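Ticket #4471: complex job returned nothing on first submit. Input attached below:
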Amino acid sequence: ATEKQTLGFQAEVKQLLHLMIHSLYSNKEIFLRELVSNASDALDKLRFQALSKEDLYEGDNDLKVRLEFDDKAQTITLSDNGIGMSRDEVVTNLGTIAKSGTAEFLSTLTGDQKQDSRLIGQFGVGFYSAFIVADKVEVYTRRAGLKPDEAVHWESSGEGDFSIETVTKEERGTRIVLHLKDEEKEFANGWRLRSLVKKYSDHISFPVEMIKENMDVGEEEEGKEKAEPAPEFESVNEATALWTLPRNEIKDEDYKEFYKHIAHDFSDPLLWAHNRVEGKLDYTSLLYVPAKAPYDLWNREAPRGLKLYIQRVFIMDDAEQFLPLYLRFVKGVVDSNDLSLNVSREILQNDKAVESMRSALTKRVLDMLSKLAADDAEKYQSFWDEFGRVLKEGPAEDFINREKIAKLMRFSSTHQDDDKQTQSLEDYVSRMKQGQDKIYYITAESYSAGVKSPHLEIFRKKGIEVLVMHDRIDEWLMSHLNEFDGKHFQDIAKGELDLGEVEDKEEKEKQEEVSKEAEPLLNRLKEVLKDHVEEVRVTHRLTDSPACLVVGAYDMGVQMRRIMEAAGQ
Ligand code: ADP
Ligand code: MG
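Support reply: We reran it on our side without changes. The output follows.
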């Protein structure tokens, strides 16, 4: 099957290619990071598979990436001796986009260059970014373990289709040749490439080698007889996995670039925590909170979790056992010295060490967020705006940490006059009226619906603050949060209203009198409405509206009812 076959790109790939080329031109150089990142992943995968199948090394376990260029031909060539790809893998990996939710994602792009480039960055452009600088890309690849004549040559100009044919390739792994566009030929330059590798890929785990500086082929003199010496290569990056270095040897820039390598994001992270734990357990973690929510944060099937290494050997991506679901936005690496190299996802699920690591890592993330909240309110607010709704799943999932999580929460309240979630429970408590012993809240479909509620009238009159909860998840959240700082939460639309000590005695007596007088009216109303309501009561919670509906103290709230109805229950 050496015959050349031409195949069309999946529609989404065409769309992505088009958008990428047009929106990323101010960010072109990232193509190199993406390709080096893929090469590094391929080396990681080979090393992992070779743990149980030594043969895959084919006698060569000196894992590395090589970067060459030819300024006359305007090409850049990147080779790795990693896992490589079979013909089927090439067709899938370099012809389609495997991520779920891709079509939805693409439909959110607007055509606005600045906004789209950020979105595409979060989506992860990967391999296709080669077409930002190249008008033709060739891939030669052989899967480790396949025969030399089972290699594949893929070629495309990044428009509608690509061709693929079976070829012979002696060395396993992948070689990518970029034919640079005329206007991008400046990339075929030793100094430029070296500085890009340093900038973007200094701390991947493998060496990126280039021909020794004084031997760069681009610099020979024309027409001169030369005895071709074998080119000598040298590593141009540090090539030590970042998390293995001591913290004081790592620059912020290094942390940021490493984040981009593992998170497939090209914005800087919001914050990170890097820790070595020794003792009963022995592991290193490097955890990042992204600055922006990914496009698939609400997609249940979206991959999540940490990159797992064991004794520096890459084991798997998306190891989800190390953090709870409500911290699914956290990216990072965990490198364990306790786990056995042949763990599987199943084993991870029932492992005692993993369980301890999970609770320690959870605490680590919550502490890092608490610290941010204390040190930099503005930055914390930007975190909350992106990920607050995910964190609100916390109290239900993580009973032990619920007080800590509650402290991290921000709500809208009658203390302010906009719908921003900026008030912490500690803020609320500090403003409580003398004698007030509860934290009052109301849930509504929107902030404006909430503040218009007649239930709020009495609180306004008395100057008592009420939290206005208007996220879909809030009622669910409140069913798992009973108290904060020893104060109970009270839904002001539920059951009898008890303002505690805030109500004065005189007023109470007056209210009782009014209730007595109203008894005949109440009885008539009960009779008329008996099929619709359970009870009719005199209320003192209104000051302007004549009447309002309340839900029984133990009944489902109105929002919750809507969610259940929407779910068909
Ligand atoms: P991602 O790296 O996020 O998976 P990419 O678009 O960068 O997405 O790459 C797509 C896929 O192509 C990779 O997941 C991998 O399977 C394959 N691939 C890309 N480059 C290489 C390589 N150098 N060696 C082996 N496989 C590769
Ligand atoms: Mg990639």
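Residues 352-375 form the longest helix (24 residues). Closing as resolved unless it happens again.
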